[in-house]
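Re: that backbone. Tokens:
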């Protein structure tokens, strides 16, 4: 089933309120990316994924109540069309490899620029969406 919206629907999972607020402000100015939900924990994110069916989940690598590879696996089990991008400050190759093996579409560092995040979201969502 194809989604009709041309906007990329994003769910953000990060335990830090200030970080979530910054991402929300970044996307408020973008017409092609819509932040449809925010979660502080993996449990909250999984509940929201079931209800909202976003195109992309931005998942913090250090989600407090579950490992990011396990959360990625669970999201993909709910709906394999949902893409997961891991957000991290670390370049831990084992962590990145585990998340990619679990089905993550990619990885982006939290210290990258906003344009890189937009591009990563657009790439993860697929060519039918345009995020830049």
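Recovered sequence:
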């Amino acid at each position: 089933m194809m989604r009709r919206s041309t906007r990329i629907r994003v769910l953000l999972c990060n335990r830090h309120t200030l970080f979530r607020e910054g991402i929300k402000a970044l996307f408020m100015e973008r017409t092609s990316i819509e932040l449809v939900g925010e979660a502080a924990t993996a449990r909250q994110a999984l509940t929201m994924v079931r209800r909202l069916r976003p195109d992309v989940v931005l998942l913090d690598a250090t989600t407090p109540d579950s490992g990011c590879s396990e959360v990625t696996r669970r999201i993909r089990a709910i709906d394999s069309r949902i893409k997961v991008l891991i957000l991290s400050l670390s370049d831990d190759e084992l962590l990145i490899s585990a998340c990619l093996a679990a089905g993550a579409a990619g990885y982006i560092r939290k210290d990258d620029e906003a344009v890189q995040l937009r591009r990563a979201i657009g790439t993860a969502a697929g060519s039918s969406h345009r995020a830049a």
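The CA atoms of residues 4 and 24 lie 23 Å apart. Confidence is low (pLDDT under 50) at residues 127-132.
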